[in-house]
Amino acid sequence: MEPLSVLFPPAFPALALAHFVALLSPGPDFFLLVGYAVRYRLRGSAGLCLGIATGNGIYILLAIAGWGILRQLPQLFTLIALLGALYLLWIGSLLLRSRPQTLTGADAQSTRPGLGKQVLLGLGSSLLNPKNALFYLALMTALLGPSVTLVQQAVSGIWMTSVVLCWDLLIVMGIGLPFIQRRLSHGIVWIERLAGVVLIAFGCGIVWRFLFP
Known about the structure:
- Keywords: Cell membrane, Membrane, Transmembrane, Transmembrane helix.
- This protein is mainly alpha-helical.
- 77% of the residues lie in helices and 0% in strands.
- Helix 3 packs antiparallel against helix 11 and helix 4 runs parallel beside helix 7.
């Protein structure tokens, strides 16, 4: 058990549980995934999962390195939040303008975004959400405590990043299952537009909080 105690902090079970429960709460990343996975399935959404997980990993690294400085720079936090709002409004508008079409392999292959674009979209969605930074800061400080070692922080960070990636891949794989695709085939455009409306609502909510605090 001693090697495990070197790698995992005593509060690791609480950290893992709190992180997974947070994943179950749908946020902008979830609706972005649904909007793309419903049309492009796994091959058109796997890059999004990788980008989102990478963005989470970057915020975890920043939390380890002392991301608490963000709390002393409210202007920086405001800038990131507003950029995130604009990003959500842009992605939401793209989904709202999606055209009706049936789910066929040829259609999905011809319009599917490339892997690089998928990764950038997912990375932007994750990094332009400053709540991710504060969430990981709280987990890595309040839960792990001041006695946590750098190795334990690194192991915890790798665990959380891997869980984000695996969970998002499970979501898009589930949406890509044939029987689910058959059920979605006639309502794909409305699902995409619903995802777009939700993303726009997230963006408008951020702007509203700054205009009318």
